[in-house]
Design a protein that fits this description.
14 helices, 19 strands
Length: 527
Amino acid sequence: MRRLALLALLLPLVAPAQPALAQAAAPAVCPVRVDPAAFASEARLSTLAGQQAAFGPRPTGSAAHAGYVDWLEDEMAAIPGLQLSSQPYTIDRWDNLGTGLTVGGAAVQVAVPVPFSSSTGAGGVSAPLVHLAAGTNITAANAAGKIVVRDLPWTNVPNLLFYPPTLGYSMYDPGLTINLLGSESMEAPAAADADLKAAAAAGALGVIEISQLPHAQIKDMYAPYEGLPYGVPGAYVGADQGKQIKAALAAGQPVQGALTVNAAWTPTTTRTLFATLPGGSDQKIVVESHTDGMSAVWDNGPLTMIEMARYLSSLPVECRPRTVQFAFVTGHLYQHLTGPDVREGGAGQLAAQLDAEYDQGKVSSVVVLEHLGAKRYDAVARPNGLPGKQLVASPTLTELLWVPVSESTPLRELVKGHIQYWDVRRTAILKGLSAADLATVPHHCSFGGEGTPYNQHLLPVIAPIAAPKTLFSPQFGPEAIDLPVMRKASLAFTDVVLDLGPMAQSDVAGDVTAMRQQRASGTPGCA
């Protein structure tokens, strides 16, 4: 018996080796953080930014926009494991066929028509000019039968708002580059929306918006972008042209103007592109950005998404506990994508769909990427006594990166940790970008950009966005992107997506769970 027992002990030592297929598979070694050597280099991001810029301005549904989406599809199709699909939409695209302006018989250079302006046809409209200063309402009494001249306003937002305890959750500015008593400011062409609506209601025949910036820096800019037709034609002019118009009006005599905005509405289709990377479960993390924009920095989120997808697809599926879906949405420059009654664009359409899927356990969270690495441009006085201001790039600073995060302390701490680790400076992690209203769910209705509809649909959201002064103008190309900072931010948010994979859904959601219950019980949402 002792001999048999000894034999039993020795047999495993002399047994032949088992075939490899019979051995237990070694567990996957999953990265704790993104390996920067395995991620896109600055040179790669620069190449992508150049390829994007080569498409030029990309209004919704334009040939350039469609070409950009096709290129993104090709890039994602080349990444192993991704499943591609599209959501088409039918729109009436607004096309600028030509503009012109004369004041007192003298030609005035037009920078660009206001998008979605009423068409005058090739013949234009002629009427007396009236300058209505900021703060003066446009009414029938002062504007009927006239072409209104307006000065574009500048917004000013105090920096203190981005610190706790107001809108801020955490600020990362180790170089102390932010003036606490200063403000963030930029020209607001979106104000033309209210001007054109008021002018149409007052019976005016057109609107001329004067920028403080020179023609060369606002040529072909695109704002506002509602996607609905205005009742009057409108156009932007630069600071020098504005001075020319005001000089003609300063003589005190009636000045006749002639404004031409020749435009057409063309039926076309546009689409949101989806690229899905399956994970260990069907519950998905959605990474989103828009594809229709005018400048390189406006639409550089998709470039990070390409490289994020490439990195995540290289990992074993065990390292992706959740599915990751990349959504390249349309309708960013056409905010009434599905009709006049709902302002949402493609992001709003997707947010409504994800809202419906969330309670079924199909959705974990949404990460929206916008304007990463946007260089800071300061508006300074123009040289030689020229009117207005000009934008000049800072040699060292990027714009403040706002990162609104929905109501979850673990989610905010996750973002905070990766921002600090990758040293993404001048970053404010925020509770929202509007004042809190405790009577609604969510409490902060604005996230400042594409993140807003997801937040309003009570989904867990992380939504980095900057507000560069160069945003609306295609005259600023890839040089407006700080590539080292863009790469750091891309690494940080890839790490965020990596960590969202195994994170407990209760931590991801935070107070969103209770808010969804409150909404179901009748608590109002955002108007």
